[in-house]
Design a protein that fits this description.
Largest sheet: 2 strands, antiparallel
Radius of gyration: 21 Å
Helix content: over 70%
Strand content: 5-15%
Number of helices: 4
Shape: elongated
Structural class: mainly alpha
Order of helices and strands: EHHHEEEH
Length: 138
């Protein structure tokens, strides 16, 4: 008989709340940008001083923080999978019932998660490097 880890109703509610809040924040940011786009462009082009570039650079760096957080979470999750030789790892909060995988298949899933964390990290560091180059030569 297949071993199944049961979903945690609290984790499901938390994930749903997080999704709703992130969606509302993203939509609000897009609407605010669209509403204030002309004012922002006028502000920036009126005096493209270094201080304004600093504000824009810092804003873009802060916008990348979710990608860095996702990379850190994926890496720690993958490490738990590989060390525990079990997917999902022991004590994971699940949003749906999940069959337990053990052995080489679990380690492979852990390695795939580590690769995903590496992609997230590489993408965020690449974007930061590009932003740094633009900021430095502006």
């Amino acid at each position: 008989m297949e071993e199944i880890d049961r979903a945690d109703p609290g984790a499901r509610r938390t994930a749903f709340r997080f999704l709703v809040i992130a969606t509302l924040l993203g939509a609000g940011a897009l609407l605010a940008f669209e509403h204030y786009r002309e004012a922002l462009l006028a502000w920036f082009s009126a005096d493209p001083s270094r201080a304004r570039w600093n504000v824009i650079f810092l804003t873009l760096v802060l916008a990348l923080s979710p990608l860095l957080i996702a990379a850190a979470w994926a890496w720690t999750f993958a490490t738990r999978v590989v060390r525990g030789n079990r997917y999902p790892p022991e004590g994971a909060k699940l949003i749906r019932d999940t069959p337990v995988v053990r052995g080489a298949a679990a380690r492979l899933r852990g390695r795939v998660h580590q690769a995903l964390a590496g992609v997230f990290l590489f993408a965020s560091l690449g974007i930061l490097w590009i932003l740094w180059q633009v900021w430095r030569f502006a």
